[in-house]
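for the recovery benchmark. tokens below, seq after
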């Protein structure tokens, strides 16, 4: 066994101070990735700074069409928020289909995007919704935040405090889950506001989440599943592993995109 010091932070400022004093510290939110990584000896931080007791990082706040979700808000709490369900049901549905009940009760939105797992669900939503990731130092557009596979724009001692976005007119998220882990083998989030459409893909890219710009262009003039009939998703740059080849994932991306558009198109105004 290796020695790890555990710290329970009660404020964002205190958490940042503890991390600054640590030799090789890690922030702990839900621990859904960090704890298994430590168990496998793939990570051995000198200190763990637990953010889960910081009240300022919890909860969903809605003002008009602006949504702000605190970083340590659990997937479960997002999934049962009735006010959010009326304004942006797609994000509520997404949260309700992450992992299993234990994962949804322990996992947090901040932990998910800080880790930026290539198969995580939230990154596609935040990219499609043009969200802003707010930290203890600055605000980062989602388009600049997700850098690559397990990489973000965060500094080593920077803390995600919330995410914020303007609710779209309509949106939907569809994923093809791995039957064992329920991670997305391909997940597509489609958001429509007026004539503007954004499509983001998770679970399929070698460099993590990405926008599907050809689909956006097609849907901007004809928002229907048939607009994607001629879409050719390039398998170059897509993941290929024991679960699915890059070519198979390319097809999944197109199918999930069409399903998301169909859900939006068939939803009553």
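predicted aa per position
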């Amino acid at each position: 066994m290796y020695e790890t010091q555990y710290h329970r932070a009660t404020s964002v400022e205190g958490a940042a101070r503890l991390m600054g004093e640590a030799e090789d510290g890690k922030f702990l939110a839900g621990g859904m990735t960090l704890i298994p990584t430590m168990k496998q000896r793939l990570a051995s931080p000198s200190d763990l700074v637990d953010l889960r007791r910081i009240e300022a990082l919890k909860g969903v706040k809605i003002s008009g069409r602006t949504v702000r979700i605190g970083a340590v808000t659990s997937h479960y709490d997002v999934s049962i928020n009735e006010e959010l369900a009326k304004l942006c049901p797609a994000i509520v549905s997404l949260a309700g289909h992450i992992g299993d009940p234990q994962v949804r009760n322990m996992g947090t939105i901040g932990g998910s995007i800080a880790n930026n797992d290539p198969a995580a669900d939230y990154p596609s939503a935040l990219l499609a919704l043009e969200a802003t990731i707010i930290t203890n130092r600055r605000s980062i557009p989602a388009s600049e935040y997700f850098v690559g596979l397990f990489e973000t724009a965060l500094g080593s001692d920077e803390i995600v405090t919330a995410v914020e976005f303007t609710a779209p007119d309509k949106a939907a998220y569809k994923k093809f889950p791995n039957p064992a882990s329920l991670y997305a083998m391909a997940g597509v989030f489609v958001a429509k506001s007026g004539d503007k459409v954004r499509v983001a893909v998770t679970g399929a890219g070698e460099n993590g989440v990405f926008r599907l710009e050809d689909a956006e262009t097609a849907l901007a003039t004809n928002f229907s599943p048939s607009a994607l009939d001629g879409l050719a998703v390039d398998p170059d740059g897509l993941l290929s592993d024991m679960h699915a080849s890059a070519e198979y994932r390319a097809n999944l991306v197109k199918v999930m995109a069409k399903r998301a558009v169909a859900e939006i198109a068939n939803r009553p105004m």
